[in-house]
Amino acid sequence: MSGDKDVMPGTETASSTGSRTWVLAVFVLAITTWLFNTRVVAHLDRPRSVAPSVEKRYDKLLYQNDTDNFLRYQETSAEALRQGKLYVPLGDFDCPVTYLMPTGAASGFTRMSPLVAHNLFFLFVCFLNGLTAYAFLRSLGCATPWALMGAVTYQGSNYVLMCHFMGHMNNVQVQWIPLIFLGVAESMRPGARWGWSLLLGAALALQVLSSPYYTLYLGFVTLPVFVLVYIVSDLRYSERTGWDLLGSIARLGLAACFAVLLSSFYLLGRLGSPSRTFVPPRGRQYSFDHYLEWLEPSDPALFIGLPTLVIAVLALRWWYLNRRPITTAMVATGVSALLMMFPALPGTPYWLFHRYVPFFNRMRVPLRFFPIFFLMLIALDMVYLSEVYRRLSRGHRLALLLVALAAFLAFNWLASPWPLDFQLVTILKTIFKRPIE
User: Fold this and answer.
1) 276 contacts: CB under 8 Å, gap ≥ 6
2) Which residue range is the domain that position 318 belongs to?
């Protein structure tokens, strides 16, 4: 096999995608951003609300809402910007510069209220979450319909909407994760352009400025797994030379250096005052401890939906019979993220990292590995569906697309009470629940 096995046979890469598909993607993802956040758009001056039944059921997970704390930091940032200064709250490990600068500027130099700026920032981030996921999926060779379906699924996850409800403006920013894996995958290809190193470095720097959780989870766990498995798989299944491999490693090294350079103003202050307190990880409600959480539409964080899970089973079998460096790296990365989501009991992977890896003692929540796991799961599903799609006739392609769309609508997007004002399952129960005469 050749190194070109990274790209699915017969597919277009992201660089050859027509501008019309990107216009379509922007339009669709803008519409879904609005649909998933109709309550926010209608009331920009109010915090996000959720169904009372959801809030009551998950009160232990949702009890600590930090919206007011982030708004206070935003007001401090606005005052600093008016004075020509940049406010970096080193005392708060979680408050992101990428949130404070644009929202502080909006509320500090206009008549916009801090809460409106807060909500507008989230809407823009929600759109970017989908757009970067679409770019990553297209780079893997996914056909446009499946790349869009995967991007919408990633964009509208309960996890992101829950983080906005909680006011956690660091955790809503999952837009850099697909961009980082896109940059890594492209940098690892034989003969890749060095420009990918600059893109990857910029994405890594923005990640550093956005969320310490995702930065450490990527830097210490999932990115090393992705790169190492990719290299080992590539050496086993391809005919790449050692010089090609060294070139890939050099591109990744350049990206890391560029990322440190761009975020140095933040890193120097952060590393100068690290926390030395051993904070115990959160309990089971902040981790993955039962597979049914994947299938519970109202679950605030771990819901992935029945279609995603069923397709994943078929995709894993397909991957095993058609192993390629990129898909093998995706599977390994997803598995590593899943293992890290298990409760942090003595001897488990998360407990070991929390106990012995520098800076991990501030990372208390295992379930925040979910966006990385979810992205890898979606990517494998959509690559598999794209492969099946291309082998079908035109009529069968349309049938597959309609069946998949109906499944995601019924069991994902319309089943969850988080993105929409109504729940399809509840409506159906109401319609068919008749008194016995």
Assistant:
1) none
2) 3-432
